[in-house]
Specification:
The protein is α+β, with helices and mostly antiparallel strands and 56 residues long. 12% of the residues lie in helices and 18% in strands. It has a domain of 30 residues.
Length: 56
């Protein structure tokens, strides 16, 4: 079984983990309702790009 030859330092470990942070979701303002929603998703009222996808 492979065993590390040297202990990984805190600096080396943290440098490796710099890209693991969370990113905020891409929100855009809906032109019809004015609400914020995620891009490329159906709005809460069931429309997408001005067309009704889901009728309530």
């Amino acid at each position: 079984m492979a065993v590390p030859a040297r202990r990984t330092s805190k600096a080396k470990k943290n440098k490796r983990r710099t890209h693991k942070g969370l990113t905020a979701p891409g929100l855009s303002r809906d032109s019809e309702t004015g609400e914020y929603r995620m891009s490329h998703r159906i709005s809460p009222d069931g429309t997408y790009k001005g067309r009704t996808i889901i009728e309530k």
